[in-house]
Amino acid sequence: MKTVMKMLVVLVLLSGTAVAFCSAAEETRTFVDDVGREITLPVKIDAVSPSGPLAQIVLYSVDQDLFVSVSSEFTDAQAKYIDPRLLTLPVTGQFYGSKAATMNPESIMELNKNLNIDVVLDIGEAKETMKPDLDDIQSKTGVGFAFVTQNKLKEIPGSYVKLGELLSRPERGQELADYVSALLAEFDTGMKEVGDNKKSLIYVTAIDGNSVSTIGKGSYHAEVIDYVGNNLAKPATTGGPGDEYTMEDILQLNPDYIIVGYVDGHAYYNTIMTDPMWRSLSAVRNGNVYEAPYGPYSWMGGPPSIQRLLSMIWLGNLMYPDVFDYDIDERVKEFYSLFFRYDLTDAELDDLMVYAKPAPASASAQATTQAPAPLFGVLAGLAAAAAVAGRGRNR
User: How much is the pTM?
Assistant: First the structure.
């Protein structure tokens, strides 16, 4: 009898051990990221740290409640659109890019004592060294690092499906993927209708006297403007803020549309609209100068992430209203609600798009009347630019 009891006790203990082992096994899973790394993760993800600004933007669109840290602090202009909880979170820094040194293993390890990070999320374009880089910091910190590719517009739907799997939010990932897929299909159809009748444009990111920075064609930052228009800028030679042109170069390009980046006080936009040299351009005379909206990020990029979809929606309707015939206000509000979980008021939308919509007909007529005569203005502008360039060469 005693022998039987002992055997029962052993069986119970073994059974308990087996259950505990199975439970532990069920609490983790293996995820393969987009550079082929196998990462052991919790089945349920609740605590995520973004590795940089791209990851921060995209993670926010999936589930803002997942954040336990941010890669960088939000500016005052961004903060109004952001969940207030995120404004109080610790900053873990950036792993890649110009601020890569701000993320280091020691700080991650220290923060993780309190944050219990499930995974550090990295998003963008896969680099040759990414696999060993991520393996190295993961081994040093003991925290899982996962990379998901999201570089070109066409990669966004697949990236959301992958993120849904990674972050244990499959339904949300699929919802966002479906929206983007439908949007890209809509624009593929529309741009085929536009065909060879694309409007010419330039995207001005900075103005400093006779120096003008524009985004060159073929760059990551130019993907949307290359797609919806005929980007007159030469092929990109630098990244970031764009390539440098002289005012004489801009006058010779003479685009149909000028898109200008936002800065405080609308400084670049105001320069274009008031400077006599700029006003000799047909885009200015015809009222086709528009400032890219900013909030919580520039719609054109900076960094170039999912908000570029907004710029596509905006520019398509702006330049080809007969093809992309929809209410731009409704589409923008829909995007903010879906991706930023923010319901824009009419007043907020008007503020965002203050220089992003065509002016009333009366205002356009007045601007045309006040602008210099086309031929005289262009000749005067070219002469002035040549004089400035000449002074520079003679110094």
Answer: 0.85
